[in-house]
Amino acid sequence: MADIQAFQERLSDVLRLARTNGKKITREGIDYFFAEENLKPEQMENIYEYLKLQGISLDGEDAVLPVAEQQEVIPLSPEEEEYVRLYEESLADVAPVEESELSGLFDRLGTGDETARVRLTEFYLPEVVRAAKELHTRPDVLVEDMIQEGNMHLFLTLGEWTPREDGHAWLCDEIRRGIRDMLKEQAQQRSEDESLVEKVRRLESAVRELAGDEDIKFSVEELSAYLDMDVEEIQDILRLAGEEQ
To answer: From CA 9, how far away is CA 14, in angstroms rounded?
Structure first.
């Protein structure tokens, strides 16, 4: 029991350190914390994966998100298909831009020309739709939200435009980056939400285990000692769960 508690304490210390450091830590730092445990390489790999699932970046790598950023495109639902169809119909009246005109629009955009910004925004809206469909790899994110995020990112990017030779290619990549960032944020939020749900379940289970069939009230400090969780963390869980403290 003491060994398990010591392990949990070290793991909690690593999490606290990483979160204090902007949710980043090195594998070398993790190895230092667990040096006395004499863990096998595969056991250390499990610790690395656990930390990444908690949103911690190791050696500059992206955290692993529980809802995987799948590479396979997920077919649109009938409702999403209808939304895209109607949206694309609304863009049908936008006049096409010739290649020579496009270059001039980017030049004018660099001088702060608002008319050029509006024209380029209209021209690249279909590109946002294409990007959203190509990046539709998450069943829990609607293509409508992806398109709206892409449109907003497009408009803001054009508003902060600086002249560049590869304007068209760069802007297409930037549209996709904006949508990818939105997907990553959504996945991170879901990870945090699922983590909170698990903590609430753990807290409820501990109370039942301690009380048995009796109606006993436990202090936050008692629960903190039993669960090896900070008092503040338990108070936050109780507050979010709507429980009296």
So the answer is: 9
Task: Name the DSSP letter for residue 186.
Answer: H
CA gap 196, 241 in Å, rounded: 10
* Euclidean distance between CA atoms 194 and 66, whole angstroms: 9
- Helix, strand, coil distribution of the chain in percent, nearest 5: 70, 0, 30
DSSP string, 153-168: HHHHHHHT----TTHH
H or E element in which residue 58 lies: strand 57-58
Torsion of CA 52, 58, 61, 66, to 10 degrees: 0
If you average pLDDT over residues 179-207, what whole number do you get?
70
Distance CA 153, CA 53 (A): 28
pTM of the model: 0.54
